[in-house]
């Protein structure tokens, strides 16, 4: 037989209240447990997540996702560092630095890819094993901030790394830059615009800036880097852009329409409004005899960045008596993509071997 349920209005609420009251009373009688954490006297925005280390072949240590800048209104900018084996004795002054800059049309990409190389971090680690401090950075993309933001990020990273030369057993007087496509453009611009005031990331900072939560930032967060050099002693570009004024004609395509393209998105302008930005962003406009030695590599079937860009830049460097080596690889497209997987592999490895040899010659030739 089923029993009828009896209802006791108001009892359950009273019981729940009594239980809550007992719980609170019990807590009041116990000793409070207060965690002890460090508290600063000002808002703290630095990232204090524990540093990570990754071990690569050859006893190379990888330090991923290091924050090198936190520009107001943007995400923290990071880079990866690859350090030579601890057992490897550095030369006098320390290991040279190589900074890699990724491609992606200035609108995409990240610090761990390059062309058709399947495992680019392993490539960078192998370069570190040869006796280099290697870094690969993420910079602000064109959808986040137009030119010159990305170039200023490159220069900030160079200064940030040099400021930590002692930590990385690095020689701050020997640095090279390397990049492909958009990264090749940024690498070339870094090489030829040493000490240029318009691209100086420190001089461009505004006093009184605030962070994303409305908290005041120091008047000049990069002030400690003001006297650190952004100059480099060698540069390598793969299928780079060097002159925005001539690239469309060389590629046989019409200028960008009202909707723009990857170049105008990077420059932050369209049509006739781009004239000043085109000049300021084109590495060829900065060439002078003080520029460092460069290696330029491009595919002769490149339909994205015509190889004539490389030939034109080579001519400007030679006219200024800047040491330059050029490799033009027949029958390969952008990213050294050939008609067959074997052709892609051969072109990519040819460029990679030439790159490593060039840095060895320019940055390690006189090591003791």
Order of strands in the sheet with the most strands? 1-2-3-5-4-6-7-8-9
- Give the total of beta strands: 9
End-to-end distance: 99 Å
- Find the CATH superfamily: Alpha/Beta hydrolase fold, catalytic domain
Work out the strand percent.
Answer: 15-25%
Count the helices. How many? 9
List the helices and strands and how they pair.
Blueprint: H1 11-29, E1 54-56, E2 60-69, E3 77-83, E4 95-101, H2 120-129, E5 133-137, H3 149-163, E6 170-180, H4 182-192, E7 234-238, H5 247-251, H6 262-267, H7 275-281, E8 294-299, H8 308-319, E9 324-329, H9 341-363
Parallel strand pairs: 4-5, 4-6, 6-7, 7-8, 8-9
Antiparallel strand pairs: 1-2, 2-3, 3-5
Helix pairs in contact: 3-4
Q: What keyword list fits this structure?
A:
16% strand, alpha/beta, 9 helices, 368 residues, Rossmann fold, nine-stranded mixed beta sheet
What does this structure look like?
- By secondary structure, the chain is an alpha/beta fold.
- It has one domain (54-201, 219-363): Rossmann fold, CATH 3.40.50.
- 29% of the residues lie in helices and 16% in strands.
- The protein is built from nine helices and nine strands.
- A nine-stranded mixed beta sheet has the order 1-2-3-5-4-6-7-8-9, sandwiched between helices.
- Helix 3 crosses helix 4 (182-192).
- The protein is globular.
- The N and C termini lie far apart (99 Å).
- 38% of the residues are buried.
- Residues 1-8 and 11-28 have low confidence and may be disordered.
What's the short version?
The chain has nine helices and nine strands. The chain is an alpha/beta fold and 368 residues long. Helix 3 crosses helix 4 (182-192).
